Amino acid sequence: MTEAHEQEPARETLTWERFGTAARELAEQVADSGYRPDLILSIARGGLFVAGALGYALGVKNLAVMNVEFYTGVGERLPLPVMLPPVPNAVDLSGATVLVADDVADTGATLRLVRDFCGGQVADVRCAVVYEKPGSEVRCEYVWRRTPLWINFPWSTLPPVVT
User: Fold this and answer.
1) Measured by CB atoms within 10 angstroms of the end CB, which terminus of the chain is less buried, N or C?
2) Exposure of 88 by Cβ count < 10 A (0-12 exposed, 13-18 middle, 19+ buried)?
3) pTM for this one?
4) Which top-rank group of organisms is this from (predicted)?
5) Higher confidence at residue 53 or residue 8?
């Protein structure tokens, strides 16, 4: 077979419509477990969509954002995830029940970094993700789907409109 005829590796594709279903089902998992977060901590950027949807579905208005850079491209990442400013004030999280929201737990390194940041500051911290990969070092309490595939998210599949 020539290169032109080789198939692209299989990918999981999440559409906006499926994301709506995923977010609602993820929120139902949280609600059914009895967990009532005081705050949803979003991991930017993909986690922003998840946190917003969970916030509405769970009736949680208190959302915070952590900017963590790890991926630099498809399958390309920094050696370790890095928190970017502004970093939430740990005092603001003190004693809260926190739900960390992200789009995917791939290696789990980003989620571990955020969980460690919350550690000792909050009453309880749990993680909710749309997808969890088998190699994730963090097992999330709330997961919509598990897959080993690269995921095409509706918010990041198309290239930026500016360069």
Assistant:
1) C
2) middle
3) 0.86
4) Bacteria
5) 53
Q: Give domain status of residue 1, yes or no.
A: no
Domain membership of residue 19 as a residue range: 7-152
Q: What is the pLDDT of residues 40-67, one digit of tens each?
A: 999 998 999 999 999 999 999 999 999 8
Q: How far apart are CA 22 and CA 131, in angstroms?
A: 10
The CATH number covering residue 148 comes to 3.40.50.2020
Residue 68 in domain: yes
Flag whether 124 is in a domain. yes
Q: Strands 11-13, 150-152: parallel, antiparallel or unpaired by DSSP?
A: parallel
pLDDT one-digit tens code per residue, 106-152: 999 999 989 988 888 899 999 999 999 999 999 999 999 999 999 99
DSSP track, 85-128: SSPPPHHHHTT-EEEEEEEEESSSHHHHHHHHHHTTTSSEEEEE
In this prediction, residue 121 carries a pLDDT of 87
Nearest to 65 by CA among 78, 52, 56: 52
For the chain, the domain total comes to 1
- How far apart (Å, rounded) are the C-alpha atoms in residues 114 and 81? 10
